[in-house]
Amino acid sequence: MEHVLWLGGGCGSGKSTIARTLAHRLDLQLYPVDAHGWRHHRLLGAGEQRSNDEMWLRPAPEELAERFVRSAEEHLSLILDDLDAMRGGPLVLAEGPLLFPALVGPHIASSADGVWLVPTEEFQEWCLRKRGGMDSSTSNPERALRNRLGRDAILNRLNRRQAAELGFTVIEVDGSRTLPEMEEVVAAHFAERIAAGPRARDGVERRRIRRAENAAVHSNIAAFVEAEKITEPRPFPFVCECTTLGCDKRVPTPIDEYGRVLERPSRYLVAESHRVAAMTLPG
Fold first, then answer.
1. What would the pLDDT profile of 134-176 be if each residue is shown by its tens digit?
2. What is the pLDDT of residue 279?
3. Which helix (H) or strand (E) holds 80?
4. Are 103 and 80 spatial neighbours (Cβ–Cβ below 8 Å)?
5. Helix (H, G, I), strand (E, B), or coil: what is residue 261?
6. Could you give the residue ranges of the DSSP H alpha helices within 117-166?
7. How far apart are CA 182 and CA 132, in angstroms?
8. β-strand pairing of 4-9 with 250-253
């Protein structure tokens, strides 16, 4: 897929934030795999329902890792279909933990078009604990965290090995560089490819791809909220849908409120500083 750049790697490596920042700053299409997870899950057919204890306490880390890899294999065809439908526009930056090198390798146009961010075990544990660990969703949060870390260590080794075998770049993430510094490292890796383009031609195209991105995220969150019976979901930082190239502003908005924006095709979600230009724009 010559129109796609691939950013894979381990949980907690910063890849989602980095991909979002770069795609918005450089006017690329963004495809966050996790933002399509619940829709894909429904298309594949819901599997057996497991309690959080069954998910995180009973299986050994090896089984958890095997489940994750199987899920990646099952979702691959749907991910590729989505990416294929994004041809004809700006370059796509696809990111997500399901993008294992051996799975997506046959679909990468050049080895320079993919990079994997792999956190060290120490940094990954620090990130997960900073986020609250496994909170209180299981009867033994500390054990659940250890199982999660054990699983992720296996997956990180898998990413490193597969990338090395296929000649893809791996960037180790140990916390010694700030997130903005990591963004520049990834941007430098893709610099030549991004310079060749294509990128969003103008503000109208930029607005179109950001609306599509927000709509996908909204659909995924709405499905998650319904499945988990969450009564008061937190506002999500949707991206501004203005016509300013390079805009990376976020607009925290309740899920229901953004759903109402989507109901009116001529209405767009824009940051407060852009509302002078009016919320309803032609096109």
1. 666 788 888 888 999 999 999 999 999 999 999 999 999 999 9
2. 42
3. helix 61-84
4. no
5. helix
6. 121-130, 141-166
7. 23
8. unpaired
Q: How far apart are CA 121 and CA 183, in angstroms?
A: 21
Which residue's entry shows tokens 């607009």?
251
Question: pLDDT tens digit string along 75-122?
Answer: 999 999 999 999 999 999 999 999 999 999 999 999 999 999 999 999
Beta strand 92-95 pairing with 4-9: parallel
| Tally of CB atoms within 10 A around 166 | 15
Consecutive H or E run containing 4: strand 4-9
Boundary-marking domain end, from 196, 214, 242: 196
Could you identify the residue written with the tokens 């430098």? Answer: 188
Assigned token pair, 86: 């994004």
Q: H or E element: which one contains 17? A: helix 15-26
Q: Read off the amino acid at residue 253.
A: T
Whole-angstrom Cα distance, residue 57 to residue 115? 32
Same domain, 184 and 45: yes
- Residues 6 or more apart whose CB falls under 8 angstroms from that of 9 comprise 15, 97, 116, 117, 118, 119, 159, 171, 173
Give the amino acid at 204. V
Kindly report the CATH number assigned to the domain that includes residue 128. 3.40.50.300
* Rounded-to-integer distance, Cα 25 and Cα 55, Å: 38
**Within this chain, do residues 37 and 137 fall inside the same structural domain, yes or no?**
yes
Structural domain includes residue 209: yes
Hey, what are 68's tokens? 């994750």
d(CA 81, CA 63): 28
Where is average pLDDT lowest: 5-14, 25-34, 136-145? 136-145
Tokens representing 20 are: 């979002």
**Residue 14: left (phi > 0), alpha (psi -120 to 50), or beta?**
left
The length of the chain in residues reads 283
